[in-house]
Design goal:
It comes from Phaeocystis antarctica. InterPro entries: Flavoprotein-like_sf. The chain has 127 residues and is an alpha/beta fold. The chain is built from 4 helices and 5 strands; from the N terminus they run βααβββαβα. β4, α3 (77-89) and β5 (98-104) form a beta-alpha-beta unit.
Length: 127
């Protein structure tokens, strides 16, 4: 089992800290490793640093991101663009991939609140 964790942030490191915390607290690598001895759990990386093609061999993807005025963070734009292309040009190409999206945002911006996290979740379902 291969697990990848990506984040998108606007420079505050909130999302990278959340991603690391989810791995530390939520995944409990020892428990996961005992159920899946050959599990490969990667450290969280900015989404644009992930080799998008590696998702073909990934079993589970954890995404932590936010949006600003509905747009993706700067270190999330290439990833989200590649995901859009995959979903539209080759629907189902990531059907094997289980995923979870953790959205971060401020409800004060209700018009665009959680726009990117919701959109990424939708694209991962389509791809």
């Amino acid at each position: 089992m291969r697990v990848a964790t990506v984040y998108g942030s606007f420079g505050e490191d909130r999302e990278s800290e959340i991603a690391a915390g989810v791995l530390r607290e939520g995944w409990d690598a020892l428990r996961l490793a005992s159920r899946f001895p050959s599990a490969s759990i990667s450290e969280p990386v900015a989404a644009d640093e992930l080799d998008f093609d590696s998702l073909a061999e990934t079993d589970f993807l954890l995404v932590v991101t936010s949006s600003r005025l509905g747009f993706p963070p700067p270190n999330f734009t290439s990833f989200s663009h590649n995901l859009l292309l995959a979903a539209k040009s080759n629907p189902g190409c990531l059907a094997h991939l289980q995923h979870a999206v953790f959205g971060n945002g401020h409800p004060k911006w209700y018009a665009t609140y959680m726009s990117m996290p919701r959109y990424v979740d939708q694209l991962l379902e389509e791809a």
